[in-house]
């Protein structure tokens, strides 16, 4: 894909950066209190928040990765495309209502409403940071590779540019700037995907049968691209992947935190609904783009054995160039860049809130003042940004899929079970929450190391000891079981009562 | 007055809990089922719908996306138009 700098792409990159920095400057004047910094003073409307949710959740993988998967394997692309959508019912139906009623700034606030504050804040803070760090790492490595590929900027500088921008958005603009960066990104991404899908559909006379005919006749796999491929090999692996995709999003701290930016429960539901509609629509667009790319690119672009120049992740960009020339390629490439920035900004803000509001406040003997907490937030955002850059450089050759798998599995195995029990079961105790969350965290990490991502390719063994790439099938039930058992046991002891568990 | 308010709040809580549980089941179970069926019944999913190129796998996948969107719209409209409370909720 890299054939010198694409001028339209560069201009749109610069325009996006200038606009978002102007928004940050505007937001900085509205970010003086904790409420404004963490939650934009709960002043974001449901529709705006829905767009921000979509901007936060639709990563570059959902666009470039899924298009590439369609191009390589057909129906498997649809399955992974659905992965961005099927977590939203749990968020909307199970979480949005109770979370918005109970929480103030972070997920930990919700847990602290039910359970003795200090221990649960420290545990939840550490669990949140673990999830956010792995999620950030996967995004930063992906960002570095993508910008390097699109613009020819070396990986290290790509990571530094992304790291500096996301830190500036958060340190100066807090949730207000982050929200607007994500809204703009969602609008750009959906507009670009709609444009690309319409041009693709028009190429085949708006006839889906013709589009599929062309794909089947040109792909070496023929009819096989209309059937499940080899990405999911067993029912156990499928169930584990399904549990990760369905329940993982409901444990992601940066996604949950967004529910506190709206004024009330109705707007919280409305925002999750808008996000579901946008992400659902995106699945349909990707089906047209994905299958259409096979029909068009196998004819228009030299593709050897299904491998595009720059790799299959560049499918959407090749398609944009084939249909709209360098200008449209520039637009789509710039949107991919915006996509990354919006996601990492949300992660940085959630990490800053976790450190300052949850961990720092819990570790101090006296409650920090609002001003002190805000200073700590900004220092934490700076530190998280710098750490993100350093880790991205250190792990630049790691498998991005594996890094994403860790983040989603940890969320489904650690924060999700504890949050569900805190929201729906009066019997949960602090000891149960901490023990269950810790069991989920440790077992997920161990299963990942013993699984096919690490045990075979990294440690050089012949067969994995844990058979599935995603550990959620084992670690999530274990977290629930341990939390349940320890809660029952600790509730009977005087210490369990004396801990001061709050039962609503 | 206080007792009556508590009774209403308790009934409202139960109603919202039931609605969210029903919607969760009809959304999450088909999602998990679709993914689990992929390796179990590839022949079924690769079968064409009549003369069309569209296979059962594609139809079910896109149908699932549409189903989840419809459920989200119905749930939000229904619960938002019936929910009278905004206060803190009990577990």
Would you spell out the secondary-structure blueprint of this structure?
The complex is a heterodimer of chains A (504) and B (91).
Chain A: H1 7-28, H2 34-39, H3 46-57, H4 60-73, H5 75-83, H6 88-102, H7 107-114, H8 117-151, H9 155-203, H10 208-218, H11 235-247, H12 253-257, H13 265-300, H14 315-363, H15 370-394, H16 400-424, H17 430-450, H18 472-492, H19 494-498
Helix pairs in contact in A: 1-9, 1-14, 3-9, 3-13, 4-5, 4-13, 4-14, 5-13, 6-13, 7-8, 7-16, 8-9, 8-14, 8-15, 8-16, 8-17, 9-13, 9-14, 9-15, 10-13, 11-16, 13-14, 14-15, 16-17, 16-18, 17-18
Chain B: H1 2-40, H2 42-45, H3 56-82
Summarize the structure.
The complex is a heterodimer of chains A (504) and B (91). Chain A is mostly helical and 504 residues long. Chain A is built from 19 helices and no strands.
What does this structure look like?
The complex is a heterodimer of chains A (504) and B (91). Chain A is mostly helical and 504 residues long. Chain A has 19 helices and no strands. Chain A starts with 6 loop residues before the first helix and ends in a 6-residue tail after the last helix. The model of chain A has no long low-confidence stretch (mean pLDDT 86). By secondary structure, chain B is mostly helical. Helices cover 77% and strands 0% of the residues of chain B. Chain B contains three helices and no strands. Chain B has helices at 2-40, 42-45, 56-82. The chains are: A mainly alpha (504), B mainly alpha (91). At the A-B interface, helix 5, helix 6, helix 10, helix 11 and helix 13 of A face helix 1 and helix 3 of B.
